[in-house]
Amino acid sequence: MQPSLNLNLPVEHIIAIPRCDRWRIYYRLQELMISCSCPIDGSLRVEINDSTELILVRSIVQQFTASRQELVSWLERCWSTPLI
Questions:
Q1: Considering the domain boundaries, does residue 1 fall inside one?
Q2: Which contiguous run of DSSP H or E holds residue 48?
Q3: CATH number of the domain where residue 61 is located
Q4: Distance (Å) of CA 61 to CA 15, 17, 44
Q5: Is the peptide bond before 10 cis (omega within 30 degrees of 0)?
Q6: Which domain holds residue 33?
Q7: Which residue in 36, 46, 72, 75 is deepest, having the highest Cβ count within 10 Å?
Q8: DSSP characters over 20-46
Q9: What is the DSSP pairing of strand 11-15 with strand 36-37?
Q10: Is the full-model pTM beyond 0.90?
């Protein structure tokens, strides 16, 4: 059974990421006009309003936190996925 995505948005998510990447991710989300903040506790809080923002946030976090090999594997899977 597939988990379903709750689309009762907006939802604020707290993302645990290394502090060295937090500000770079924050500024990239700001460039994309995705509501986010970096409170004093060191977390990154992101408000997700729709599925497009969800995909963008996931992609940006992955870009900054995944290893090179993980990114290469992900890109290869994308290239090999047949179009419907």
A1: no
A2: strand 44-48
A3: 3.30.1370
A4: 9, 8, 11
A5: yes
A6: 11-80
A7: 46
A8: HHHHHHHHHHHHTT--EE--TTS-EEE
A9: unpaired
A10: no
